[in-house]
Design a protein that fits this description.
By secondary structure, the protein is mainly beta. The chain has three helices and nine strands; from the N terminus they run βββααββαββββ. It folds into two domains: about 45 residues, Thiol Ester Dehydrase, Chain A, CATH 3.10.129; about 140 residues, Roll (Thiol Ester Dehydrase, Chain A), CATH 3.10.129.10. Keywords: Hydrolase.
Amino acid sequence: GDPKVPVLYEVERTRTGKSFSVRTVKAIQHGKPIFTCQASFQLSQESPVQHQFTMPAVPPPEELLTQEELIQKFLQNPNLAERYRKHLNKIQAEDVPIDIKPVNPPDIFCLEPQEPKQLFWVRARGYIGETDMKVHCCVAAYISDYAFLGTALLPHRQYRIKFMVSLDHSMWFHASFRADHWMLYECESPWAGGCRGLVQGRLWRRDGTLAVTCAQEGVIRVEQTPNQSKL
């Protein structure tokens, strides 16, 4: 998209029922679609059929370092290769409106394959408050895309990324939540191949309630020559 050009949104009433309604949205710039979305809405309904997975047992966010603190720790290593130092400085300079505390941060100095799973405590920076739940859903959608597809690369850390971008992103909202409160983001990648990767995620409230489920498929292209040590 072009941030300097207004976006025209076309909304199609795909289906309107008593309990469920579907809307298809197309965002257009310069006469071409740049984004398509299908949203399903449901009236609140009670049901005895209820279950969920169990939230992973992890340390609370108060006991963990932020992403910025971890990067600063890595930068203090005098043996860090210069190009990786530049990359970490670039990440640190980004103005990301999310507080992130990795539960199991990967060792950036090790290129050994790792299990394609990640856990983060995440929340929006600043105060959002008890506003319309749709605002918190929009913020959660932004948060859910951050570092999500990278989970599929953990077993392949010896390769340098040439190109990586999401193809589609789906979300299911299960319970109310506050996007400006800490939530545990559980990410895993069940499959990768053919220059594509599939990732799945769950956003948990601190009380153990599963609030959001996510899924994403993306393009992943890497250089065929493996990376060298970062030290």
